[in-house]
């Protein structure tokens, strides 16, 4: 099997769904789906099957390989695999997504008597992470740091830049805008409150950027989580893509990373009827959250 050395830098356009393609046979589909599930935990939804097959076919043509040789290649060539993963995962996100979870944190953050270390799990393009940073900047009285992780390098790059359109700022409560948003040169802070904003982007302010660290991390490697002794783990809209037993394994690993008194906030419906001997359900309307009460 021969792959030209510069091939991995060729980003082929994602396939046009109207174009006919050679569908995988049953055996090929089963092999690819189980590879995806074992590597990234994702059960490929039916609706994505044909898009994924087109993507594989584009890449195998570029590599000059047939489907089974390409299947073998992605298992040993991490950059080629990463390119496929980038197109598979769902990156939908928003600032202050699911308000009740942030209301719970707003209340809890001020109760910590030491610096608060937070993990934003499956951070996508960073809106969740920067929302947490805005909240912690105002309410964590003894300082904070945030570790944010995702499997996709392309979303992590967007997150690190912290550069967003004004349309996205609509979701950020007024109380957090003053100190957390930087305007492009030549614009007054009053523009932040004006109903008609400029069309230029804005950036997360330096004061927050100094406290936030982004890492690529695959949750299927949850036994090797690089973070420890955390006060808050925020994991919303991530576990829904995993099978029940993988969700349990990941949650067990997250619990091990929390300090006693630490809080695990999940998306509602992320893991119904989960319980863990070290965790106690926190009652706050509209949330799915747990506090670590035992070692
Ligand atoms: C729908 S987004 C949720 C973003 C954010 N947490 C929110 O609620 O707005 C799910 C994110 O999980 C990431 N993800 C999916 N599988 C993953 C895995 N195995 N390891 C780490 N991150 C993963 C995706 O790349 C994606 O950015």
Briefly say what this structure is.
The protein has 295 residues and is an alpha/beta fold.
Q: Would you mind describing this structure in some detail?
A:
The protein is of the alpha/beta class. The chain has 2 domains: 7-88, Chemotaxis receptor methyltransferase CheR, N-terminal domain (Chemotaxis Receptor Methyltransferase Cher, domain 1), CATH 1.10.155.10; 99-292, Rossmann fold (3-Layer(aba) Sandwich), CATH 3.40.50. It has 11 helices and 10 strands. Strands 6-2-1-7-8-10-9 form a 7-stranded mixed beta sheet. A 3-stranded antiparallel beta sheet has the order 3-5-4. Helix 5 (99-109) packs parallel to helix 6 (127-139). The radius of gyration is 21 Å and the shape is globular. Residues 40-42, 89-93, 97, 122, 124, 128, 150-152, 155, 218-220, 236-238, 241 line the site of S-adenosylmethionine.
Compile the SSE list and pairings.
Blueprint: H1 26-40, H2 49-63, H3 67-76, H4 78-88, H5 99-109, E1 116-121, H6 127-139, E2 144-150, H7 153-161, E3 163-164, H8 166-169, H9 174-180, E4 181-182, E5 202-204, H10 206-209, E6 212-216, E7 230-235, H11 244-257, E8 258-266, E9 279-282, E10 288-292
Helix pairs in contact: 3-4, 5-6
């Amino acid at each position: 099997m021969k792959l030209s050395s510069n091939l991995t830098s060729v980003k082929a356009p994602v396939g046009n769904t109207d174009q006919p393609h050679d569908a995988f046979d049953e055996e090929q589909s089963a092999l690819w789906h189980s590879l995806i599930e074992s590597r990234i935990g994702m059960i490929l939804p039916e609706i994505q099957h044909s898009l994924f097959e087109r993507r594989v076919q584009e890449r195998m043509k570029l590599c000059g390989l047939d489907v089974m040789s390409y299947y073998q290649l992605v298992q040993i060539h991490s950059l080629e695999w990463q390119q496929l993963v980038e197109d598979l995962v769902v990156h939908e996100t928003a600032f202050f997504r699911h308000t009740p979870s942030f209301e719970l944190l707003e209340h809890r953050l001020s109760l910590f008597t030491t610096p608060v270390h937070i993990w934003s799990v499956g951070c996508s393009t960073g809106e969740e992470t920067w929302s947490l940073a805005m909240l912690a900047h105002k309410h964590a009285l003894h300082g904070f740091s945030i570790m944010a992780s995702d499997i996709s390098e392309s979303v992590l790059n967007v997150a690190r830049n912290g550069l967003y359109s004004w349309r996205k700022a609509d979701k950020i409560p007024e109380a957090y805008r003053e100190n957390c948003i930087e305007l492009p040169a030549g614009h007054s802070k009053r523009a932040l409150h004006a109903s008609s904003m400029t069309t230029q982007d804005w950036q997360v302010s330096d004061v927050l950027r100094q406290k936030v660290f982004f890492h690529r991390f695959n949750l299927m490697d949850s036994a090797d989580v690089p973070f420890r002794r955390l006060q808050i783990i925020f994991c919303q809209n991530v576990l829904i893509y995993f099978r029940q037993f993988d969700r349990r394994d990941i949650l067990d690993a997250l619990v091990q990373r929390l300090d006693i008194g630490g809080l695990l906030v999940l998306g509602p419906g992320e893991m119904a009827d989960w319980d863990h001997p070290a965790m106690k359900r926190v009652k706050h309307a509209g949330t799915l959250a747990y506090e670590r009460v035992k070692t």
